[in-house]
Each structure stands twice: as C-alpha cells, then as structure tokens.
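Entry 12.
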Amino acid sequence: MKKKIVFSLLFLFLFYAIGIVFSTLYIQNTTGALERLIKLHQIEDLRQHLILSIQTVQSELYTVGTPLGHKIDIITDNVSLLEENATRCTGCHHEPEIDSRLKEIQKYIRDYQAALSYYITASANREGIERLKFNAAAIGNTLLATTEQMSIDASRKLAFMTNEALERARIVRTILIITILLTFVFSLLIAFRLTKSITDPINVLVNATRAIAAGDLDYSVSYKDKTEFGELADNFNIMSSALKEGYTELEEDIAKRKEAELALAKSEERYALAAQGANDGLWDWDITNNRIYYSPRWKMMLGCTESDISSSPEEWFGRVHPDDRKKLDSQFAAHMLGNTPHFESEYRITHKDGTYRWVLSRGIAVWDTSGKAFRIAGSQTDITARKSVEEQLIYDAFHDALTGLPNRALFMDRLQQALRAFETQARRHRDHNFAVLFIDLDRFKVINDSLGHIIGDRLLVAVGQRLLNCLRPSDSVARLGGDEYAILLETSNERKDFIDIAERIQADLPIPFLIDGRELITTASIGIAFGSGIYSHADEIIRDADIAMYQAKAKGKARIEIFEEHMHASFIDKLKLEADLRMALDHRELRLHYQPILDMTSNRLTGFEALVRWFHPTRGIIFPMDFIPLAEESGLIMEIGEWIFREACTQLVVWQKKYTASPGLKMSMNISGRQFSDPALLDQIILIVNDVGIDPGSLIIEITESIIMENADLALATLHKLREMGFQLHIDDFGTGYSSLSYINVFPVTALKIDRSFIAKMADSDESLEIIKAIISLAKNLNFEVIAEGLEEIGQVSKMKDLNCDFAQGFYFAKPMDTEGIENWIRDKG
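Predicted 3D structure (tokens):
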C-alpha cells in the first residue's frame, strides 16, 4: 500500500513537472522574441531619426538662399546629425540582408555628405553652384527613398514578430491551464483509488472484529491483497484461530477458578463482613485491646485530620450528642449480646467546627466460640442532608404550601391531642376548655374569578396572617383548603373568651387589604363548636363547626353561629335530601309546571315560564327555593338545568304546533349562577336547540342581577353570544339585587322583570310603588319591555295597566300548572 501511495504521488508530480517544463521552454523562447522586439523597436526609432535628419537637410538645401532658408551652418549641423544617426544604426546587430542595406545607406550618406561639401565650399559661377546643389538634392532623395522603404519593411517585420510572440504567450497559458486541470482530475482519480484501496479492507476487518466480538470465533477474513492489508487479513485469520483455541482453554481456567473461589469463600468471611458494613467512613473496633481504627474518611466527616483523632473509643462516643448517647449505647449493647443481627444507629456527632452532623453507623460483630464478641467493624455515613430533606418533607406534609400555616393533617392531630387532654381534665371538672372556629371567606370566588388567582392567593396569605394576629400564642390556625380556615382555641374555661376572639376576627377581617395597589375587602362566616364529652374524634368537632358555619352563610353571611344539636339534625336532613335529589331525575320525580304570561294590553297569551317541581315520594311537592340552592351547592344543578331546558323546549314545540291561533308563543327559563358560569353552557344550549328543532327567538333566558354582577365582564360576553344566537334575555327579580345602573344599558337584555315583593307591597307602601314606577320608567327609556310577576288581585292588575306595564303573570291569571292543566286553561280561556 505504501508503494501505491508513493507511485501515485510520484506520477502526479512528474505529470505536473512535465507541464511546467514545457511551459518554461515556451516562456524562454517567448522571452528571446520579446528581447528582439524591443531591439527592433529601438532600431525603428533610430531609422525614424535618420529619416527625419535626411528630410531636414533636404529642406534646408532647397530653401537656402531664399527668405525661408537658414544659414549654411544649419545644413552643416544637420549633416553631422545625419552621420551620427547612421553610425548608431550601423552599430546594431542585424540580419545579413539588413546589414547590407544599411551599408548601402551609409554609402549614400557619404556621397550625400561629399555632394553637400562641394556645394557648400564651391566658389565657381552661379550655374556651377546650382548644379552641385541639384546633385546633392538628387542623392538626398535617393537616400530618403531607400531609408523609408527599409522603415516600411522593418515595420512589417516588427508586426509579424509581435503577433508571433503573442501566439507563443497564448500557447504557454493553454499549456498551464491543461496541466492544472489534468493534475486536478488525476488527483481525484488517485484519491478515489487510494481511498477505496484503504477503506475496503478496513471495512472487511471491522466486520470481522464485530463478528469476533459477538462471539463468532469461527469467523475468517477472505480478503486477498498484496499490500499490508492483505498481510493484516492473513494475520487476523491466524489470530481468530488462536483466539478460538485460547477461549476453550479460558473456559477451563474459569471453571478451575470458580472452584478456587468457592474454596476461598470461607477465608474471606471476615472481609465480607467488613465490606457489608462499610458504606462511607470505615471503623474497626478491636474489642479485646479496646482500640478502634478510624479511616481517613471517617475523620474527614468530622472535619479532622489524621493526627486529630487517636484510636480511643472515647474519640467516637465522646462526640455523640448527649440526647443520642443513651440510644447509641443500647443499640450497641443489643448487637453485642446477639439480640440484633447487625448494629445500626442514627445519631448526632460533633463536628470540628462545633456543629452537630447527623450520621448513620452500621456494623457487624464477630464472636468467638464462647459467644463473646471480640471484634466489630462497620461504616459511618453522613446523613445530614437526608435529615434536612426529611424535616422539610415532614414540614411540607403538615403545612399549607401557600400560606405556611398548618394544614388539615397537622390541625387534626393537634385537635385530637386537645380532645385527649379534655378527656383527662373532664374527670376533674366538666367546664369547656377548648373550641374550634370554622371560617369561610364570603364571596372569595368573585375576587378570585375577577382579579385572577394570583391576587386571590395573595389575599389568602394576608387573611392567614391577620388571623394569626388576632390569636393568642397558645392558639392554632390552619388553612384547610380553598378559602376555609380552622382555629383551635385552648387554655380557657369560659365560652365568652372564645366568642370574643371570634368577634375580634369578625371586626378585623373587613379592614381593607392592600394587594398590588388594590384595596380588597372580605368578610367571613364563622361557625363555633365547643369541646365536650360527646366528641371522641377530631373530625366530629370539625364537622359540627362546619355545620355552624353553613348556618352563618344561610343567615346572610359575615356572622358568627354557635353549633347547636338541632343543626346536626338539619344537616343530616340536608344530606338525605341531597342523596334523594341525586336519584330524582332517574326516578322521574322532577316535573315542569308552566305559568302563563299575558299581554296586559290585549290580555292575549304570549308565553309561559317553566318552573320545576320535585314530587318527593315521602315529602310530597318540594318547591325550587327548597332544593335549587342544594342542587347548586352539590353541582347537580348542571344536570337538572339541562333537563329543564330540553323538557321546556320540547313542550313549547308541541304547543306552537297545536295552538296556531296564538302565534309566537315563547318559553321563559331560569338559568342559575352555577350554570351561567359554566363554559359549556352555550354548547349545551345549542345542542338542545338543534336536537329539538326550535327557533331560539321563541326562547327567553331569565338571569338575576346578582348572577350578572358577580363577574360583569364574563357575563357581558356570554349575554352577547346568547343574543347573537337569537335568544331573548330578561333580568329576573329586578330591583332586589345589587346591580349598577352604569351597566344596565350595556347588557343586551330585552326586558326587566319586576320582583313579586314590590307588587305585594304596592298597595301598602308608597316606597314600593315608587320603585315600580322607577323600574318601568328606566325600562321605557332603554327600550326594554317590563314584566310584572306575582299579580294576585284585580287592583294590582289595574295599577300595572295604568303604569303601562307590558306583560304580567300571577295567580290572578293562572297558577303554575302541568301540561294537562295548561291545555285545559287555554281551552277554558279560549
């Protein structure tokens, strides 16, 4: 292979050198031609000077004695110049033909000089002088003609030689280009050839080594070559064969070695014990001589050098934390007596810097035939980092990640301890000595949804801190989840002390919180359960405090309620009712009743309001006000609301087809706050409308003010989408909520519904009448329709007609009825 590379490179060099030699020869010839061209150009210049000198002498000769002529001295000077140019031209090297012509020109010049000399020195008569002048002029003309012809011939020769030199230069350039291109092509061919000559055998050898590595010891290389690779392939086959033979011998050696290892296993038992105990820093205690070997790593863990610690056992045990020494000694003793299979202990030990480090020591003892331990060896591992992580994990497991307060698990543990302490004290006296406060923030969801979870989380942290500020050092506060907190109050025998703390919390919480430049105000509903002998588990007292808190919510929020026994019965009843409600749809216990809505001007039926009733198998009819809040709280309202919407739409389609004499019948349906905030509401409504095949323009969705104002921006977007789909939108119970009049003209509602409470008080209360007038006036100014509900007397009907109310519903016209009752009512009315 080395010869191939050398010969290839030598060939490439010789080819390139030949091209360079040819180019050099042509360049040398071209250089000689160029030198001759330079001389010819110089000779041509001399000829031109010679011709100019002859012409000058001739001109002076013809003009002498005339007004244009010069003195005879001028002719003499020009003749001298003519002789000088002729001499310089003769001094050059020329071809024989040119040299003979130059000599002829020199002869003419000498004759020309002689004739001029005769003319200039003549003193004969005038005719003789003129004759000499014309003789000299004739010789000069002959000389001029001869010189000019030679100049013309020389110019032709010069042009020919110039073209010849340029052609030689082009040939040189062509030779160089061809040499470079062919050299490049040969280089590529040689490189490809050499690469193939190297890579092919290498690939063969690589595949062979892979096969050998995979265990194919019979693999051989069939590559044949006269280069080093061929020799390498032959040697590889020899090596493969030798390897196969050696492998058989190796297997035999391994079998023998295993036998030897088994024989040595017993003698290595001591080493195995030390290796089993070792993990980090090693120690080896010679109990007989009471000396301990501490490895450098063992000493380094304590920040000590080799010379800082001796081999005394006190170097170890004297550094152990006093609180951990007793446990360490007992664990050592248990293992030394054979009560434990191995020694293991976690304890704190003094570092050189004065701090304590947590370590884990493990070891195994060796006993003599009498059962007495004479040696124990093991390891010591620094577990300080692990202990820190464990402590953090324990802290995280019992504390709320957001507020840093104890979480439910830790609070329940402390509450269980308080219950046990109470049981112990109850044997001596029966006074209450602890209480649990269950706190739930009012309307926190509004803040969280409108301002975002980040602001909501910061408010929760601030509330937790404020609760801590309201408590005594012995009290505990925990965040149970969401916006719920629990407080354990202890070390007092008077109920009033616990109530005072709850009232202090109620007074401090509404103080505005400044969060991200915003002033946020929140209140809380608080339930209190006092410790008593009826409780044996922490979750029982938490349950009762929670029940009391829900009573506070039900009575208007932002108040304190103390748990009473009847509340539990009410709560159990509520749970039972919720369980029954979950089965109500499946058992077809929910039914719709419909109340007619009439045009007050024409007394014509315009539509109905769908009202759900629950026909409970044991409790009888349950009205919406008694189970809808429970449905919202439990999440069942989504399923019930979907069923009401589909059932009402289906029934309206039937009546629209049946009562064609009452065109444009509409159906009003209430949407709860939980439904309205559900992102899937619009898709659900569209699906039902498409399934039933009803015109959305004949459907009216009624929403209360409070639902709209909980999140005005979200409500506005949802209402616009419903209006774009064709639904009519009514604000139900208008005047009883907390709407802002600045919003009312922005919402795309079509009608306001006056709450029945204003209608009922209209005759006895001027204030209610004025509110009704204001609502109707506001609606007319905003081009809204007005519906009065709860009309039960003729006087109420007459008054609403006088006030230009558009539509009405109430017992005066008809009570809510099932489908059969509505159809009978329409037939009787018609």
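Annotation: The first helix runs from residue 2 to 63. The mean pLDDT is 82.
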